């Protein structure tokens, strides 16, 4: 009995409190028109009216105010009086930053207020970009890039991706969509899906439809794909390496992860290489099915850094179409003996029997050293050099007569070398033990069309350096042998 009485008393008290709350909520002293949340397009006009409803015959409009608030910071807006209980404010052309909270309040009762939330934005634009690709002939991947102002808008757009095969009349919604990255993915099921004609199949045409919507409107864009073979990407290249490396050549080999590619597609390979003599990238393009490339005319004793990437030849010209970059490094072999300095690109070792049969053997070692790139106007791979001795026919270039004239000829096949070119001259013993002292000699240039009586000068493009063997070894102070 007592329990029922207490329960009835609590129920009546709760009802009275709820009625009080409802009455207070229904009878606000202020009212802001229009109420609630407004969605406006940039450039539109905004009119707001603030009113006070208390039954009072005095002029209350002077105590009304309208404010624009963001992050608890409010700014009072200019207004005009409509009557003794109402005021009005207008914004002729809304900006994005006008999307804030607007407050109508009565100064004599600060806790009495009405709010209207205004969001300002744009009607959606067509997507800035739709990029689609296939990884393995059986799937479709599309990434949507919004227009710049839509991407920055507070009115978050809703994106829907549809696809349709050119053999079908039905639009199918993308089954897997990531709203955060605007990314769509679908794959042909093992058994026919909703629409067999719309299953992803290689060498078929499709239409991709992207709709962008927000509370202010919608827009859309289509991407036609004439043939899905044009969007198949290469995920990676395998076992990229250099083999059969000599002083002048190297062979690059690599493999594809997808077995169908060499049969079905022509592929563009972009190969870049750099060296200390050519620090800027040198690009080689290939559009063939072979997974092999021979690099010719390389510089001896030089490290090469090589990179490769690939894409289907019919792919759209887009950086995203390329496979990840694979890299390899190798060093070409030397032309000169092992004692050659690091900066050489080749050389000759000229031995000479000991004088007076002492057994000592002084020799002349010649290295070709490129000048800095800024000082040359040709590729090093086009340059060649040879050594001859006037009056000597020994194929091993053994110098018997110290007075014999040594001739070093530096040539360039395209006759564009204007020099100067440098030659390093160094004295060595028979065991390739060379002195640390080296002499750098400049070879003057000789143009192809230069007027000279020398027959040897006319037979090449480049430079000639002439010295007797004795003057190089002795007068230059390079030979360290006692018998020299």
Name a few traits of the molecule.
5 helices, 484 residues, four-stranded antiparallel β-sheet, Immunoglobulin-like, single chain
Topology of helices and strands:
Elements: H1 2-26, E1 30-33, E2 36-41, E3 46-52, E4 64-70, E5 73-76, E6 80-83, E7 86-91, E8 101-106, E9 109-121, E10 129-133, E11 139-145, H2 148-152, E12 158-165, E13 172-173, E14 176-178, E15 183-187, E16 206-214, E17 217-225, E18 238-243, E19 250-255, H3 261-264, E20 267-274, E21 282-286, E22 292-295, E23 303-312, E24 326-331, E25 347-351, E26 363-369, E27 383-390, E28 405-412, E29 421-428, E30 434-443, E31 445-446, H4 455-458, E32 462-468, H5 469-475
Protein name: Fibronectin type-III domain-containing protein
Keywords: Signal
């Amino acid at each position: 009995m007592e329990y029922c009485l207490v329960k009835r008393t609590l129920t009546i008290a709760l009802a009275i409190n709820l009625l009080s709350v409802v009455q207070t909520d229904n009878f606000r002293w202020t009212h802001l028109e229009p109420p609630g949340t407004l969605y406006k397009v940039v450039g539109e006009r905004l009119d707001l009216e603030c009113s006070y409803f208390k039954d009072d015959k005095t002029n209350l409009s002077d105590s009304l105010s309208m404010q624009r608030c963001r992050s608890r910071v409010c700014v009072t807006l200019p207004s005009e009086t409509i009557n003794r209980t109402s005021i009005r404010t207008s914004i002729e052309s809304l900006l994005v930053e006008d999307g804030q909270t607007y407050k109508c309040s009565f100064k004599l009762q600060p806790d009495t207020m009405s709010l209207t939330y205004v969001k300002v934005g744009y009607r959606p634009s067509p997507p800035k970009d739709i990029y689609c690709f296939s990884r393995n002939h059986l799937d479709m991947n599309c990434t949507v890039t919004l227009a710049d102002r839509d991407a920055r808008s507070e009115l978050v757009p809703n994106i829907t991706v549809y696809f349709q095969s050119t053999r079908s009349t039905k639009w199918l919604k993308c089954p897997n969509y990531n709203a955060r990255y605007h990314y769509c993915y679908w794959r042909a099921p093992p058994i026919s899906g909703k629409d067999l004609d719309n299953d992803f199949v290689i060498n078929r045409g499709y239409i991709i439809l992207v709709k962008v919507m927000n509370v202010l409107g919608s827009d859309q864009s289509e991407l036609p794909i004439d043939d899905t073979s044009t969007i198949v990407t290469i995920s990676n290249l395998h076992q990229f390496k250099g083999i059969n490396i000599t002083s002048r050549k190297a062979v690059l080999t690599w493999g594809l992860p997808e077995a169908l590619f060499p049969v079905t597609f022509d592929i563009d390979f972009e190969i870049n290489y750099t060296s200390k003599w050519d620090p800027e990238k040198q690009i080689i393009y290939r559009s063939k099915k072979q997974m092999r490339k021979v690099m010719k005319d390389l510089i001896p004793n030089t490290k090469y850094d090589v990179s490769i990437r690939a894409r289907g030849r019919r792919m759209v010209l887009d950086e995203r179409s390329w496979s990840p970059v694979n890299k390899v490094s190798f060093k070409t072999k030397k032309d000169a003996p092992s004692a050659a300095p690091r900066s050489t690109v080749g050389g000759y070792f000229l031995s000479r029997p000991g004088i007076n049969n002492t057994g000592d053997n002084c020799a002349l070692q010649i290295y070709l050293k490129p000048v800095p790139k800024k000082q040359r106007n040709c590729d090093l791979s086009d340059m060649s050099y040879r050594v001859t001795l006037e009056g000597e026919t020994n194929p091993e270039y053994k110098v018997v007569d110290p007075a014999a004239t040594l001739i070093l000829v530096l040539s360039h096949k395209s006759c564009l070398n204007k020099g100067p070119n440098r030659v390093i001259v160094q004295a060595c013993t028979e065991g390739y033990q060379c002195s640390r002292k080296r002499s750098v000699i400049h070879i003057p240039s000789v143009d192809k069309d230069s007027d000279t009586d020398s027959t040897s000068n006319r037979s090449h493009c480049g430079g000639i350096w002439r010295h007797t063997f004795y003057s190089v070894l002795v007068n230059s102070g390079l030979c360290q042998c006692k018998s020299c």
